[in-house]
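Lay summary. Proteins are chains of building blocks that fold into shapes, and those shapes determine what they do. In this project we predict the shape from the chain. Here is one chain we studied, written as its sequence of building blocks.
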Amino acid sequence: MERRSIGAGALSVGAIGLGCMPMSWAYAPSRRSGQESLAAVHTALDLGSNLLDTADVYGPYTNELLLGRVLRERRSEAFVSAKGGLRAGEQHVVADGRPGYMRRACDASLRRLRTDVIDLYQLHRVDPEVPVEETWGAMAELVAAGKVRALGFCALGAGAGPGAGRRGDRAYGTTLRHLERAQQVFPVSAVQAELSVWSPQAAWQLLPWCAARGVGFLAAMPLGSGFLTGTLTPGEGFESQDVRARHPRFTAEAMASNQVLVAQLRRVARRHGPEVTAAQVALAWVLAQGPQVVPVPGADRAHWAAENAGAAQVRLTAGDLAEIASLPGVVGAWD
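And here is the predicted shape, written in a compact code that computers can read:
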């Protein structure tokens, strides 16, 4: 698989990563299977998708424990991307950026992952009660202690938040200010945010910031939480604990209206061969946004991990990209 570099330290990873959240959190609880998830991780590593993206809050904790079973055998083949800075409560999560908490969270993640170093440790959310410089300074100490190799910053979901502008200006303004402040304390190696055909806002503001500074970009939810794969049926519904059950883009009406996006991805896919899928075209679009971009699609089955990895071989033409750019805006937004 093609390799891409993250940050000024030139950390090398496969062009397609593996998002591990669906294995333990957020989506369809009835579909979770430890053995199936383990097979997906092994398949991803076999095919060069070596960036494994996890967080302590996924589960909580069970996702890191699951990955630890793989890392015990294949640590040298994996690039471990973990996150801290969120605490899980009964029905919600709370940001906690206190230096002492970040140090304890990192140590606990290391134990669960069965490793002595995390390749990329990301601040999952900024704590509004703690200056970002204090949180980031504590994370920098983890690098100095040899527990972490590089630091990343998450801005997940900002593009779809309340009041998000058409070009994401208001949504990412606060994130950019936090990034500038953090950068004064210790280098930011990667930024993670949602980026996909139906959520392109990060490409207009966050990506230029990253490109100008040699910062990597991890594209979260590059398959639109599964919608861009074309495997979801409008009106089929979701389990009550599935986050999509409450998302405006996943109502039956919105999903029906947004089928035009999937139809166009399928048309492009057919031009690239009978085996190419809509999901692979969606991932190829993300790859085409810049050489520092690494899509991190979630997958909890081996065949999906394999299909996602295959997207690294799809090269979209200028005509393909223009067609995708001309698609109508997505129906259903938080604001």
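What the prediction tells us: The mean pLDDT is 93.
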